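Researcher: Please generate the 3D structure of the following complex. Treat every line as part of one assembly.
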Amino acid sequence: MQVLSRLFGRSRRYSDIDVSIREHISERADELVEEGMPRAKAEQAARREFGNLALIRQHSREQWQWRALESFLADLKFTIRRLRKSPAFAITVLLTLAIGIGANTAVFSVVDGVLLKPLPYPDANRLVALWLDAPGAAGLSNFEEGLRLSPSLYFTFADHNHTFQSLGVWVSGELNVTGLAQPEQAHALWISDGILQTLDVPPVAGRWFSAQDQDPKGAKTVMLSYGYWQRHFGGDRGVIGTSIQLDSQTREIVGIMPRGFRVLDREFDLLVPLAFDRGKLILAGFGYNGIGRLKPGVSIPQANADVSRLIETWMHSYSNGPGTNPFFYRNWRINPEFRPLKQQVVGQVSKVLWVVMATVGLVMLIACVNIANLLLVRADSRRQELSIRAALGAGRARIARELLFESVTLSLTGGLLALGAAYGGLRLLMAFGPADLPRLSEIALDGRSFAFTFVLSVLSGFLFGSIPAYRYSRTSAASALSGSNRTASLGRDRQRSRSVLVVAQVAMALVLLVSALLMIRTFAALRNVDPGFSDPAHLETMRMFIPDLLVTDPVQVTRLQNEIADKIAAIPGVTSVGFSAALPMAGDDPNWDEFGAEGKHYAGGDPPLRLFNYVAPGYFHTLGTRIVAGRDFTWSDIYNFNQYIIVSENFARENWGSAAAAIGKRGRQFTNSPWQVVIGVVQDVRHNGVDEKPPVTIYWPTMLMSPYTRPPSTDSQRAISFAIRTNRAGNESLVADVQRAVWSINGSLPIANPGTMQEIYSKSMERTSFTLAMLAIAGSMALSLGIIGIYGVISYAVAQRTREMGIRLALGAPKHELKWMFVRSALMLTGVGVGIGMVAAAALTQSMKSLLYGISPLDPITYFTVPLVLAFAAILASYLPARRAASINPVEALRVD
Amino acid sequence: MAKDSDSRDLFPGALEIMILQSLHRKPMHGYALVKHIKSVSDNLLQIEEGSLYPALQRLLREGLLDSEEGISAKGRPTRIYRVTAAGLHHLEKEMQSFEKMYAGIARVLAFSRT
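Model: Done. Output below.
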C-alpha cells in the first residue's frame, strides 16, 4: 500500500518541489530588486545563485523514486532506443558476446563439475587415496602414481592406525553373470571392509556388507548398483535375499546402492566382498586401491606420519613364504604418500581443463577488446551529443554511467543469449571431450554456471565499457564543440587508445596461436610415433574371462582359449587371431615384477621391476608388432612348458647391446627361479600411451609354472583380450559371429568390451586431440577477431583522414605511398603486439609443458611461423581500407564535411 | 556552470539536524529556511540549495517532516515545512549523539594542545 501511495503521490510531490523552488528564486529576486537591482538582472542573479536548477530538482525528485530502478528504466529505455538505431552494431556485439561468454560458461561448467565441486560423498574433504611411494624399488618409476597396497598392508594399516575413521581397499574387474538371460559380463568392484564406511553412502534397499560377508568361509553375498537393479530386476525390492550366479558361484543379493553412487569414478554393476583369508596373506600383491576417511581434524601429513611407522610392523607380521627375507622391502624405502581423493579422481585432466579455461578466457578478453574498440568508434560519433549534454549540466559521472550502462546492458543481453550457446557448447564438449573425463555425470549447467555467466557478463561489460566511459566522460565541452570537424585529421590521443587495444589484441592472439600451433605440432609428433602395432582400424578387440568354478584346471583353460581362438580365426574375413593378458594402451598392467639378465649385477642387489605381459602364439603377428629377432611362441612351447620368454627391444639393448645378441641369452625372476631363455625380441610397444615411453617388457607364455606358489604350480591367464585382424573390425555382425564362436565351445562364456584397436589408440591420444581442438578453435577465433580489430582501426583512421588524404593527393603524393602509409601503421601495431605477445607466450606456454610431446614450449618453428601469419593478416586487414584511401578523389575528399 | 553539489556540510547528518532544529523552532518555507540558517550561522556555514532541497525531500520521505500548502511573505504560494513527532524524536536522539561526539572531539583537541 505504501508503495502504491508513494507511486501515485509522487506527481504531487514533484509539483511541491517545483512550487518551493520557484518561490525560492522569486523571493530572492524580490530581495535583490529591493536592494536596487533592475528586475531582469535580479532574476538572472537569483537563478545563478540557486545553482543548477535542473540538477537540484532531479536530486530532490530522486528522493521519491526507487532511485536505482527508475534511473535504470530510464537508461534502459534510452539504451534500447539507441541500439535499435544501429542494429548491425548491436547484433555484432551481441553475437560476439553470446559466443564468447557461452564458451566460457560451458568450459566453466566442466571445470566446476570436474575440478571445483567436492566429490559426491558426505564430508568428502576427509577422503584420501592411499598411495605409497617406494623410491628404492628400481623400475617402479614406471608406475605413474606410486605403489598400491597389498592385502597385508591393508590389514596392518586398518588394525593399527590412529588417524583414520575407516579405510579399505578395492579392485575392479569383470564377473560373468549366468542364469539371468544370456550370459554376460558385468563390471564388478571387489571391496574390503571399510570401503562403504569410508564413502559413507547408505544403500537404497537392503544393507551394506557386514563383517561376516568379508569372511572367506562365510555366506557369499553381492550388492547391486542402482542401474543394474533397474535394468535386470526392474527396480523390484523383492530381489533382496534372492540369489544370482556370478562366475559360477551362487551369491545372495543383500543390498542396492543408490542412483549415481560410484566408487571414486568407477561405474559398476556389482559390489562383491573381497573376503581375504587372513591366514594366507603374504607381504606382496601391491595391486589394491586404498581409500580412507580421516578422523575429523586430521591432516594428510599427520596420517602419513601415523602410517609410516606401520611399515616396520608390517614386515614383522608377514612374509613372502618360507625362505624369503621379509625385510627385503626395507630396500624399497616404502613410505605413505596419501593424497586427497579428489586429486585421484580428477587426475591428469585438470591441466587440460585449466589450459582450455585460460584459452577461452583469453578469447573472451580479445572479444572484449574488439567490442571496446567498436564502442570507442560509436562514442566518437556521439562526441558532439555528449559535449552538449555536458554543457547542459550532465555530470561526468552521469555520462560515464550512461556509457557504462549501455555496455553492461549489452553484455547482460549477450550473457542471456550465451546461456543458449553454453547449453549447446556443453553438449558438444561432453560429446567430443575426452571420454575418460572424470565426473562426467556431475557436469551440468546449474546455479553456479548461471552465477558465473552473470558475473562474467557484468565484468566484461564493465571491462569494455570502462574504456570509452573513461575517455568520453573527460571530454571538455569547449574543445569538443569547437574543434570537432575542423581539424584535418584525427586527434592523436583518440587514435592512441584504439591503437593500444589493437596491440593488446595482437599480443593475445599471438599467445593463442602459438599454443594452438604447439598442440598441432605435438599431435603431428604423436602421429609419427610407432605405437608398436599397425593398422589399428582393422583390429577388433574384446575381453573374455574363464572363472575358476567353471573350469578348474589351468591347462583346460588354455586349451579352451586355444580352441576359441581357432574358431574365431575361421570366421569369414578374419585373417589372424591372438590373445594376451592385456592390450597396449588399454590401461591394464597384468603384472610388474623383478627380472634380471644372467650375469648382470644390479645396484642394491635386486634387479628392477619390469612390466610382464602373458601372450599366446600369433598375438604379435595379429597386432602387427614386429619381431625384431628370433621367433614367436608356438603352441607346443606352451603345452610343453618350455622355459622361454620374449623380451622387448629396449630390454635386449639394455642387457646385450642389440636385439640379435639377445637370442639364446637367459634371465630369471627370482634367485630361486629357473632360467628363462630368450627366444624372440619384439619392437618396443607404447603400452602406457603414445606420449609415454615404452616400458621395458617381458612377455611370458600365456600358461606357465607360477613362481608365486610354493612349489611352483601350473598357472594360466583366465582374463584375456583377443586381438582379431579383420576387415570387419568395428562391425556388429563380427561381434555376433565371435560370440557364436565362443558359445559353440562353451555356452556360459560371455565376451566383453568389444571395440577396435583404433578406438583404444585414439582414446590414448584424446587428451592431446581435445586440447588441440579447443586451442585450434580459440586460435582461429583470436585470429579472425584480431583481423577485424586491425581492419576496424585502419578503416576508421582512413575515414577520419579522408580530408588529409585529399590534400596529400592534391599536393601530388603518389597513391602507393598513401597505401603504404596505412599498411605500415598496421604493421607497426602488429609488430609491437607480436613483441609483447612473444614474451607473454614464452612465459605462459611453460605451463603447457606436460601437454606437449616431442617439442619444446619454445619451439622455434612455431615462434617463427605465428608472427609471419599475424603480419600477413595485418597486411591483408589494412590493405583493403588503405586502397580505399588511395582511390579517393581529392575534390570530393575536400568537399566532405 | 554547474555547481558541484558534492561539497557538503561538515559531516553527514549535520544538515538534517540543523533543518529539524530550525523548523522545530518555527515552521518555514524553503527560502526562509536557507536565509535563517545562513543568518544564524553568521554565514560561517555555506548551506547550498543544491543539498537543502534534496535533504528536505529526504526528511519528508522518512516522515520526519510534513509539508503543507502556504503563502510566502510576498503572498505567493509555497510549501511550509514543519517537524512531525517522529522528527522531534529523531532530532533529540541526533542532538544527544552529536553533543557526545562534539564533547569527545573537543576533549581530544584540548588534550592534544597541552
